[in-house]
Amino acid sequence: MAAIEIKNATKYYGKFKAIDNISMKVEKGTVHGLIGVNGSGKTTLIKALVGIHELSSGEIKVLGRDVFDDMVTKSKIGYVADRNRFFKYYKVKDLVKFYSEVYPKFSYDKFNEYNERMKILGARRINGLSKGMQMKLSIMLNLARNSEILVLDEPTSGLDVIAKAEVLGFIMDEVRARELTVLISSHHLDELEKVCDDMTMISEGKMSQQNKIDQIKQELDKLQVVFSHQVDINRVRSQVPAIDVQQNGNVYYIVTSDTPKSIEQIKKIGAFMIEKVPISVEEVFVYLNRV
Amino acid sequence: MKTLFKHEFRILFKILMIFIAFAVGAGILMLNVNRRFLINCDIGILEEPNLHYHFYEILKNIQFVIVIPIMIMVYCQFREVKDANVSEFILSLPFSAKKISIVKIISGLTILLINGVIVAFIFIGINTAVEPQLMRVRAILPVGESLTEHYTNFTIFSLVVKYTMDMIFMYLMFVLGQFLVKKVSHAIILTLMGIIAIPYIIYPFVILYGSIVSTKINELIKITCLKIQPLMVTANDIDGSVYKQKIYSYNIGQADIILVAICVIVLILIIFLVKEVGFVRFKNFTCSEILDKVLIAVAGICSGFIPFYYVFVFGGRLGVYSIIIFGIVTGILGSIAMSKIIERNVEAES
Questions:
Q1: What is the pLDDT of residue B211?
Q2: In this predicted structure, which of A46-50, A88-92, A210-214, B2-6 has the lowest mean pLDDT?
Q3: Measured between CA atoms, how close is B287 to chain A, in angstroms?
Q4: CB nearest to A74's CB, from B3, B88, B92
Q5: pTM of this structure
Q6: What are the pLDDT digits (tens) for A99-119?
Q7: From CA B340, how far away is CA B332, in angstroms rounded?
């Protein structure tokens, strides 16, 4: 049984279809990335997943159970929102107490351990915290809750470089220690690439890809090419079946989904060096969205 | 659930203070009446203070003003879970919409009960404290025995129960409104207008059809408002003189049982709507497309009465046919205005 199973999820806001027939699975103990451009439907999907909104059609099951209005399932899901909207008039220590009362598995020791690094004073009011500090607080609270599933929507937004590394480190430690299942959405694909086992790409409310990181990278190839003579870049663009062609001095970078045909054409033009270079998930995502 | 209650009372602490202040305020007003009575007794003026009449008058006046803190209370309770940004955080917590609603309602009712209990304690306390003086006064009054018979601590208790039940009814109506209309502030305004609309629509019929209608109206009003029909007691002297006294005594009766039944029905309706629409499943301006249409129709009907009020309340001059024609025009305009408001709100949300 997958930890998270989404089948044919569709959500309308009035007449606007925010997500359209999305199906995906997240296996237990894995870190799954959810990527998409702004407005693609990631946050809508996440809000349906954590029980804030109900789907217009389709189903979402977490650990085999429905989520919406189900207290048992919701108690197993930790949620870090893109903009954490806690009770503004509470102090940090009040919110920690609130969490400890709502979630029986909440660990003060764990929270304090994280807070030794994050250094958020208990006496501070929530509305006095910066966006980044509220994010750190939310992550610490949800990690200290010992939930079985952790859903994070843009968790590194507003965080400095050091905090980002620390937060991602905390999450990975939890995954290793107790098989925590994580669904994380982010625009920072370079960060996701380091921590995710697999990814789902969403575009205009629809799922465009779901695969392991390595397999996503195999969708496209990036070739580093040097020609034996001066070649006009437009000739390369017109003759080679490439998604993108860039030139840097004598070196051409060609991104293609049809590598054999591209190499054939490149050789016809007169290349004396063709080399496959690593391509990042971010590049794959950018180029696939362009197609 | 304990956590939800703690959180709820945290939000409502200032509101609780307001309701306690109202209760204490009522007590202070009564203490003033009582003080005058005792001063009179001290200087030998034995005058029946008619405490029960003052109890009734104070509560009758408070019940119109106390609508405002009730509205504020409902706004504070439901803003968090319906409109405000924090609603997403609350909805992600492991509590069902039903549980959250039950906690809110119990918290609201508790505050109203606290108000009622304080009023009851103060009023009964005052009445008990001056009982010796009251007995002295009534001993020399021709209708003294009747006053003693009708003015008891139990009738004060009944009066306060009625006052508290009226507040509970009003509160439940505003809560019901939250599950009928999407936005918190719209729900409160429309519930208030709905409550005012009833006498607003009925009044023209009272003017036109006089006492037949007004008698029936009075009976209906007694169910949801504190209204005592004074009892006239008489005492005959040996020499044939007749003494009369109006008695403002309240006893729990049929109207109260009907009110309790209405409150139970409203509660059942609320629980039903919690399951149907919860806090976020409003697809229209109200909980259903049919109710949107009903709202437009009611807005039309209420607007249609404007010419009537222009003539009969504000002294305007229009003939019967003009009232009817202008009534149709204002009715249509009112419906259009309401439908535009609904359309704009639905578009803005989508």
A1: 65
A2: A210-214
A3: 14
A4: B92
A5: 0.85
A6: 999 999 999 999 999 999 888
A7: 12
Q: Kindly list the residues from chain A whose CB atom is less than 8 angstroms away from the CB atom of residue B346.
A: 14
**What are the residues whose beta carbons fall under 8 Å from the beta carbon of A217, sequence distance 6 or more?**
A278, A279, A280, A281, A284
Q: Which residues touch B88 (CB under 8 Å, ≥6 apart)?
A: A47, A52, A81, A85
Which residue intervals of B181-288 are DSSP H helices?
184-209, 211-224, 254-276
- Cα separation, B99 vs B103, in Å, equals 6
Tell how strand A149-153 and strand A181-185 pair up: parallel
**Of A54, A69, A88, which has the smallest distance from its Cβ to B96's Cβ?**
A69
Separation in Å, CA of A116 to nearest CA in chain B: 25
Nearest Cα of chain B lies from the Cα of A287 at a distance, in angstroms, of: 31
Cβ of A101 and B2 within 8 Å? Answer: yes
Report residue B336 as tokens.
Answer: 């259009």
**How far apart (Å, rounded) are the C-alpha atoms in residues A56 and A47?**
13
CA-nearest residue of chain B to A94? B7
The stretch B260-277 carries a mean pLDDT of: 92
B63-79 average pLDDT score: 93
Q: Report the CATH architecture of A2-211.
A: 3-Layer(aba) Sandwich (3.40)
User: If you search the block for the tokens 């119109």, which residue do you land on?
Assistant: B64
Sign of CA dihedral B277, B280, B281, B285: positive
Subunit contact A87:B86, Cβ cutoff 8 A: yes
* CATH of the structural domain A219-289, one choice from 3.30.565.10, 3.30.70.1510, 3.40.30.10, 3.40.50.1370: 3.30.70.1510
Between A15, A54, A102, which is nearest B93 by CB? A102
